[in-house]
Every structure is written in C-alpha cells, then in structure tokens.
Design brief:
It is a single chain. It is built from 8 helices and 12 strands. The chain has about 300 residues and is α/β, with parallel strands linked by helices. The protein has one domain. Strand 1 and strand 2 form a beta hairpin. The longest helix has 16 residues. It is globular and about 45 Å long.
Length: about 300
C-alpha cells in the first residue's frame, strides 16, 4: 500500500517528516495525529516542578520483596486536548483528567481496556489516585508466566512529569512499588529482568527537560517508547539511563496498546530486538492496514 508523506512543524520550528498510510482508517488517523503533531498549543507542564534523578534518589525507599520473575512497567500520558501540543480529538477521548474514556487508557485500544481483554493477563489490583500525578494504577499478572505488568495513567497535564519518571525508572533512580498477595515489589529495582515503557504523545517535541537522569546501577533494563519519532527525541535521555531501546519509533504513529502487547509478548518469550520489532510491525499493520513494509520502517530496535 502506498503511503502519503506529510511534514508537520513543531513549535520550535523543526520539520518532522511524518508518514500516513493513504487509506488509514479514521480511528487510526486521529489517534496518530493526537499523539504526534507538536505545536498545536502549549504542552502541559511548562512551569510545573518535575522530579529529577537527584530528587528521586533522595526519596525514602520502601522495603520491597525480591522477585525472580519479570516486571514490565508502563507509563501512560493520558491524551489531553488542552494541555498537550496535539491536534484535538473528540472531547471524551482527549480529557486528560478522565482515564475511563481516554484515548490511551479506557478507549477501545487503550492500555487498560486492551489488556483487560487479553486472555494471557488477569487484573490483580487497581488503585485510584496513587499519587497526585497518577489517576489510576492497574496491576496485571500473567496467567502462565511468572510476570507482572503494571500500568500508570498520568494526568494529561502531567506529561512532563510522566516523561521524567520514565527516564527515572529506566535509570534506576525511581522505584515505584506495587502490591500483590500481601507483598510489595519494586518497579525500578528488584526484578531479574525489567522493561519500562512510555505510551502517549511525544512531549519532547514541545518541551525540554531540566535534567536527564543518569544511570544508577548496572541492571539491564529494556525500553519500549510508543510515541511519534521517539528514536529522534528520546535518544539523548535514554542513553543517559543505560537502558536498551527494545522498540521505538521513527515517524508518525498511533501509540495504541496492541503494539505494546505485541512487544511484551516477544520480550516475555526471550526474543531478540529484531523479532520483537517485527511483532510490533505486524500488530500495527493488522490494526492500521498500512502494509507490513511501511510498518517495519516505522519501528526500530537498538541504537
């Protein structure tokens, strides 16, 4: 299938080449635009205080249990028509304070809804407002593998903090916790294998971070970044964390949960980056009908 090339400009005036499948369905079109077109309006977080690595490291540590399985931690920046530099989507989908109907959380292909329907996972905990920035936390446990998936829905206005927290956890400087069966486990440290993911608008198109968290330990962490042109915009920050880019993107895309699930399936199966990238591309093509070659160009692995 042929693709139509578009160029959108961020507020900083940088041209970002973007690829849209010529016959992209309406749903995919506005989700992609919601995620990726910078400069539509000021992004949230402008003068908001953000927690950098130094502050994160200074936080009181919660005692956690050792865990030999795998933990995937997903930070979702809720779609927000008011506080993010995006092309507006329908009001219900773009309310950054309403996770239940939000495009990236409670909608059909949002993280919460998609994994709730996934036969491999079951929800074991749900916490409302675990912090001022996070509206909901969902904990899933894999039904056949020793693995947890923990997803946090950040207020749309807190996209800058969501981005910083992604880097903080990826670097080992922040250790959010979750509970299951009376035990407390760490999301940033304490797992034998670890993956950190970001899902949402690429806020780095609209703002710069005051500091980039630096790697705290020698643990291997994989990263999945489902936001437009994330390889271009997240490279500097991710290098500082020491995390390995398992899957990230090269262009305009809809950061929907079927891609995240495909990447997690490959990661849990112990596949290498190229195989995981192919899984992500196949999932994207299945739902967006953009052609496998175009989808493969959209995703990258490694540096």
């Amino acid at each position: 299938m042929s693709c139509a090339r578009r160029v959108e400009r961020t507020r900083a005036g940088k041209a970002v080449a973007q690829v849209l499948p010529a016959t992209l369905v309406t749903w995919g079109l506005f989700t992609a635009l919601a995620a990726c077109v910078g400069g539509a309006r000021p992004a949230g977080g402008g003068s908001r205080a953000v927690v950098t690595d130094a502050l994160a490291a200074a936080q009181v540590e919660v005692k956690t249990e050792p865990y030999a399985g795998r933990v995937a931690y997903v930070i979702v920046a809720l779609c927000d028509n008011v506080n993010q530099g995006i092309v507006p989507v329908p009001a219900a989908l773009g309310n950054g304070d309403d996770p239940a109907r939000n495009l990236y959380w409670g909608a059909r292909f949002g993280v919460k809804t998609h994994f709730k329907a996934a036969r491999e996972w079951r929800a074991v905990a749900s916490v409302q407002n675990p912090s001022p920035q996070i509206l909901e936390r969902i904990v899933y446990k894999h039904k056949t593998l020793d693995a947890y998936l923990v997803a946090d829905a950040y207020r749309g206005a807190e996209i800058k903090q969501a981005t910083v927290d992604f880097f903080n956890v990826a670097s080992g400087n922040l250790n959010p916790t979750f509970e299951d069966g009376g035990k407390t486990y760490g999301l940033g440290r304490g797992a034998a294998a670890h993956l950190v993911a970001y899902v949402g608008h690429d806020g780095l198109m609209d703002f710069q971070l005051p500091a980039l968290p630096k790697r705290r330990d020698e643990l291997r962490r994989d990263a999945v970044i489902l936001a437009c042109a994330s390889k271009q915009y997240f490279t500097a920050g991710l290098r500082e964390t020491g995390a390995h880019p398992l899957v990230w993107t090269t262009n305009l895309m809809a950061p929907e949960a079927y891609v995240l699930k495909a990447a997690l399936d490959g990661w849990l199966a112990g596949e290498d980056g190229e195989r995981v990238r192919l899984r992500a591309a196949k999932a994207y093509d299945k739902y967006q009908n953009c052609g496998l070659r175009a989808a493969q160009r959209l995703f990258a692995t490694g540096w």
